[in-house]
Amino acid sequence: MPKSDAGQQVSDMPASKAIKQALDNINSAKTKREETMTELVQHLANLNMIDDLMPVHQGQSTKEAVFGAKKEEFNQYFKRMAEQEDLIKSSNNVIQSNFADFSKLK
Predict the structure, then answer these.
(1) How far is CA 91 from the centre of its chain?
(2) DSSP alpha helix (H) spans, 1-106
(3) Cα(99)–Cα(60) distance, integer angstroms
(4) What's 48's DSSP letter?
(5) What angle do CA 84, 85, 90 make, to 5 degrees?
(6) Is the alpha carbon torsion for 30, 76, 93, 106 positive or negative?
(7) Tens digit of each residue's pLDDT, the chain (106 residues)
(8) What sign for the dihedral angle of Cα 59, 64, 69, 70?
(9) CA distance 86 to 81
(10) 13 CB contacts (<8 Å, ≥6 apart)?
(11) 47 by DSSP, 3-state: which?
């Protein structure tokens, strides 16, 4: 079924394009956030601190170094999730700022 000229004009409007892009960004960010959460849960399930602390027992490392490395691993997961949350927030702001113009389209 061919698109109507009015429908095409609406989809070509800057407000419509901005909202569509923002919605695409939100969907992408949510997918990436879910993937990161899945990786984090998998990481937690496979966490073996006994093996990680063995070098401390053998005098090859310190507890601070081992726990610091683990903390950094978790911080990387949280950083990735925060980046996706920021993208979602900024995309929501784009939607809100363009919604008034989009509402006027007919």
Answers:
(1) 12
(2) 5-12, 14-45, 49-57, 63-104
(3) 60
(4) -
(5) 100
(6) negative
(7) 455 565 566 677 888 899 999 999 999 999 999 999 999 999 999 999 899 999 999 999 999 999 999 999 999 999 999 999 999 999 999 999 998 887 876 5
(8) positive
(9) 9
(10) 101, 102, 105
(11) coil
Give the position of tokens 């995309």: 91
User: Exposed, middle or buried: residue 90 (CB in 10 Å: 0-12, 13-18, 19+)?
Assistant: middle
Which class for 22: exposed (0-12), middle (13-18), buried (19 or more C-beta within 10 A)?
buried
Quick one: how far is CA 105 from the chain centroid? 31
Q: Which pair of tokens denotes residue 57?
A: 């027992």
How far from each other are the two terminal CA atoms of the chain, in whole angstroms? 20
Instruction: Record the tokens describing residue 41, joined without a space.
Output: 């849960």
The Cα-based distances of 3 to 6, 23, 80, 104 in angstroms read 8, 21, 40, 20
One-letter amino acid identity for 11?
S
> In this structure, which amino acid lies at residue 66?
V
Measured distance CA(57)–CA(49) in Å, rounded: 12
